[in-house]
Each structure stands twice: as C-alpha cells, then as structure tokens.
Amino acid sequence: MRKMNSPPVPAPGSSRRLRFLLALPKFGIVLLVIALLSLLWLLQRNEHEEERTTLIKDVLWLEQNLRFHLNGAEDQLQQLAVDLVQDAEPTRTFRIRAAHMLRTMPEVSQILWLDPNHRVIDALPSSTLPDQEIEAFGLAYTQRAFELASQLGKPAYSEPFFSDGKRAFVELLLPVFNGRRLSGMLAAVFPLDTLLNSQVPWWFTQKYKVVIVDDNDIQYAAKTSVEGNTAQSYEIPFDPPGRGLKLRVTSYQNTENFLPRVLSAAIILLAGGVFWSLWLVRDLMRKRTRAEEALRGEHAFRTAMEDSLTVGMRARDLQGKVIYVNPAFCRMTGFSSDELVGTTPPMPYWVPEQIDETFAMHQAVMAGMAPPDGFEMTFRRKDGAHFQALVYEAKLIDGNGKHTGWMASVLDITERKRAEELARQQQAQLQFTSRLVTMGEMASTLAHELNQPLAAIASYNTGCLNLIDQAGCTTADIKPALEKIGTQAQRAGKIIRRVHDFVRKSEPKRAPCDLREVVEDCLGFVEADARKHRIRIEADLPELPLVPADRLMLEQVLLNLMRNGMEAMADNAEADRLLRVAIEVNEEILSVSVADQGCGIAPENRDKLFTAFFTTKPDGMGIGLSICRSIIEFHRGRLWADDNPRSSTGRGTIFTFTLPLHSS
Ligand code: ADP
Known about the structure:
Elements: H1 12-86, H2 90-104, E1 110-114, E2 120-124, H3 131-152, E3 156-157, E4 161-163, E5 167-178, E6 181-191, H4 192-199, H5 202-207, E7 208-213, E8 219-223, E9 230-237, E10 246-252, H6 259-308, E11 312-317, E12 322-325, H7 327-333, H8 337-340, H9 355-366, E13 375-380, E14 386-397, E15 403-412, H10 414-469, H11 475-503, E16 511-513, H12 515-532, E17 536-540, E18 547-549, H13 551-568, E19 578-585, E20 589-595, H14 624-634, E21 639-643, E22 653-660
Parallel strand pairs: 17-19
Antiparallel strand pairs: 1-2, 1-6, 3-5, 4-5, 5-6, 7-8, 7-10, 9-10, 11-12, 11-15, 13-14, 14-15, 16-18, 19-20, 20-22, 21-22
This protein binds adenosine-5'-diphosphate.
The site of adenosine-5'-diphosphate (ADP) has 21 residues, from α13 and α14.
C-alpha cells in the first residue's frame, strides 16, 4: 500500500547475508595472520639457513687456509731436514733457512734443531723462549710427539700446551734422518694465538669469533673483533695439528643487516593497520546492523500503526499530486494505493457534480488557506457511493524542515452525520411528544376555556332568535349580538388554532419573532389553568426587538417553565401563589425569567434537573427541562435555575433563559 519515499528497509535475508559478510573479515584476518607469521617464519628460517651455510663455508675455508699454512710450514721443515743432512755446513743452513721461515711465516714463533736426545742444537730465535720452557718442551709436552715422529719417521704435532699459563702453543716435530738413522729433530713452535692472528683475515673476525678448543672444551686461543649476541656456531676438527683440537667458529648476529628487519616491522605495522581498519569496519558494520534492526523495528511499528489507523491519511506535494495514501484512506475511497498515488486533480474520488467547489477547496488548501478546524467534503467511493468526509489539512515538513507538501487526515463522518440526524429527528419527535403531553394535560382546561366562547355564542344566538321573534325588531338590534357572536367565534377559533399550531409537528424554523407576543400567547394558554388553581400571574413585558428564533419552540419552553412553576406552588396558601414572568434586555442578550414561590429545588436534585427522565412528580415524565435546555442551546442561549430571593414564602425558584439578540 505504501508509495511514499520511505527508506528502503533490508529484508531479513539480507541480514543473514550481512552476518556472513561480517564473518568474512574474521576468516580473512585469521588467514592473513597465519600467512604473515608463516612468511616471517620462512624468512627467518631462510636467513638462518643462509647464515649457517655461509658460516660452514667460511669455516671450511678457514680450516683449509690454516691447513695450507701448516702444511706449507711442514714442507719447508721437511726440505730443511733433507738439506741439513746433505749440507756441509748444517748449522749455517739451519740458521739461514730458519730465519727465512720465521720471516715468511709469522705463525711460527721459533724453530728448534734438536739432537736425538732431545737436546737443542740450535734455535731461532733462541731468545723467544725462556730456557725452562725449552726444557719444558723436551720434558712434558713434546716428549710423546718426539717419540712418535722418530718412530714413524714422519712429522708429528705435539699436544697443545700453555706457557706460563697464558699463551698456548703446539709444536711440529719433524725427524731428521741420515740414511736410516735418526740424526736429529726439527721443531717449529706455533703459538696458537699468533696462528689465528696471522691466518684469520679481518673480515672473518668482523663476522665470527674463532676459538681453538679441545675435547675438554679448554680454550687455547681466540680471535674476534665483534661483540654481541652470538647466533650460531660450527665446529670442525683442527687437523693438522689434530690432537683433539677443534676450530669453533661462532657467528654474531648481523646488526647491519637491518633491511629485512625493517621490512618485517613494516609488514607487521601494515598488518596491524589492516587489522585496525578491519576492526573499524567491523564496528561500523555492527553499528549499521543495529541501526538496520532498529529501523526494521521502527518500520514494522509504523506499518502496524498505519494499518490499524482508522483515519485516512493522504499526502500531496506542493503541486497537488498525491504522493502517499494510507490503507484507511484506500478502504474509505475503495481505490487502491496504486490507483491514487501519482494522481493530480481532479481526483478520482471527487464528486463530479461538485467538481467546482471541490477544486476551489483544493486551491485554498494548496494556497495554505485551509480552515484550521477542518472542513467537510463529499467524496465518492469507487463504486459511486458518496460519503461525507471531515478533512484536516496540515503542512508536510520533511527532515530538513522544508515544506514539501500537504498532509491530510480524512475522517468518514457519514455515519456520524446519520446518527446526528437521527438524534435530531428523535429530539424533534420527543419535543412533539412533550407538546402532546403538555397539551393533553391542558386539554380539560382548554375544553373549559373553549366552552366559554361557545356558551357565549349559544347565548348570543338565543338572544338573537328571541329578538327576531319580537315584533319591531330591527337589524340594528340584532347586529351587536351578531358581532359579539363573531368575536366569540374568533376567540374560539384562535384557541383552536393555537392548539393546532402548538401540537403541529414541524421542523425548527428560525424567524424574527417578538418575544413579548410569544409570552403573551403562552400566558393566554395557561390563563385558564391558573385561574382554575387560583394562581396569580404577573408579567413585566417591555417593548422588545425582534429576535431570530423558532416561535413554537420558545412557546414550548415558556409553557413548560410556567406549568412547572404553577405545579410547584400547588401546596402554597392561596395568597402565596404568584408566578412572575419578566423579560430583560441589554445590548446583546435578552433574558426571560419565570419565578415561582413554590417548593424550590432540593440541593441534591440541582445537578439532575436537566437530565432527561429526571422527575420528582409521581406522574411526571422528566423530559420537559431537558428539552427546554436543548431548545435554548439550539438558539445559542443558556437555561439555568436559581432560588427565588424575592419569594414571600422564602422558597421558590427562578428559571432564566437567555437568547442572543443577533444570530451570529
Ligand atoms: P416533569 O415536570 O415531568 O417532572 P421536568 O423536566 O419539567 O419534568 O421537571 C423535572 C423536575 O424538576 C421536576 O420533577 C421537579 O422536581 C423539578 N422542577 C421543575 N421545575 C420546578 C420548579 N419550578 N420548582 C421546583 N421544582 C421544579
């Protein structure tokens, strides 16, 4: 039914999809985290592997380099051993060659020439080792190597040893054979720290720490030029010299290699940023879902409200085009929303016979001149039936406070009108009945009243007949009697006409009427009754302007009030039976009062006086005062009762009604 530009509200299915969509980023985040961690782990592992490979390569290279140098030294000693046997001046040869070796091989600190009994024949430089150390060689450390070399006839290295507990050395012993006889032993002393210092290049020490250790983890020499955290290390047997010695190379974490770390940090940062933005998106989507749910609830509420509304709603834009109608309006007119929305004047529900008036009202509404209290219109249903509508027009203001059209609430008041009409007819019927009742009650006195002119007519008639029978009777004698007969007949006729007028059922007709005449007529009515009950009536009737009123209705009111007043004084002493009728007039209002000196009104009855069917009389109907009040209100006046302060009995009531002098 809805055609207005209401906001699109997502269907429940879309919320399921939204929830699924909301879950997607979570999966994405988990996958991304896994991927990132795997990537970082792989990078780390690759780096580690690479470092290890490089370390192993470098260690192998170093080991090869050392071996090359030690083997070189061994070769040269070998050559010297051969030359010592063959040369004529072995001492000189030893000196020259040893000096040369010491020069070219910085890793060798001393070269010794021993005899088979371990005694030193010569040594270069002889001063580098104190005597006791030379002694120590022979005794402690080199003993076994000496034995081994002489037995095997091959070079052999000694076990590493410390001199004065600080520097560590190894010694290469090489036997000198003269033919098959051991003629001596050449020994080259290698301080292990010097060996490392001379053979480990600077770039190597920038990356690694090189340590010479044995199986017992005793450290003999070390070289490095970096400090910090060690990353990984690699050990390789240091052979030659062997003897359980090992080269342990430990790499240091590369502080210069910060690019991958920066990259990793950037990745983590970016990932963090992505997570954060995803979190924000998730938050936003949650808010959106909540807003949508609220909107859906609001929409459902609005729809329910609209559907249950019995008032028709119709919105038109500033050009008069229908932009929205609610279900109640559709029910009222019988047209569907599709048939109505988009239509421009003349609307399909306008009555063709009243098109001009309806269009004029439409123009007034569009000009903002619609009556604020609403206006009545006749509309046509789709099936052609007419109905009365009460329309209230108001400005349609959008969310930005802009006037975008006109909103009308339309009430089908056909039934109400019908009910009002029925009530009015019933009221009229009741009035008529009340008049009949009043008339019935007054019938006997009226019959008595009518009797008088009829009796007078009969006696005048008899008198006339008697005159005719008399001789010498002229028409002039009869004429006055006949005139009186006529007068009495008119009087009787007047009474009958008054009764007829009073009882006649007629629609209310407002016409200028003289209230004084009305009161006099009423007094004429009740005169007989008053006489019968010996009630005096005083009337104070000034000259009055004409008032627009229904004469018959006012007569009914006055008669009712007068009769009630007379009835209230039924138990009064004769002297106190006084009914006073007065009329006062000021500029705008005319007030008529009927005052009696009767029983008065009990306080508990005061509020009920004007309600229908309230009576304190055994044979009363209790509708008189209620009809009187509706008649006076119909004339836009008021009717009320007061105590009579001027009563000689101290009791009594004054009924007063007002009438506006001008109908507005
Ligand atoms: P009914 O005369 O048939 O009882 P009314 O509507 O004319 O019906 O009056 C209702 C009641 O108001 C009366 O029964 C009476 O009790 C009270 N009433 C009316 N007029 C007077 C009056 N002038 N003095 C005292 N009571 C009155």
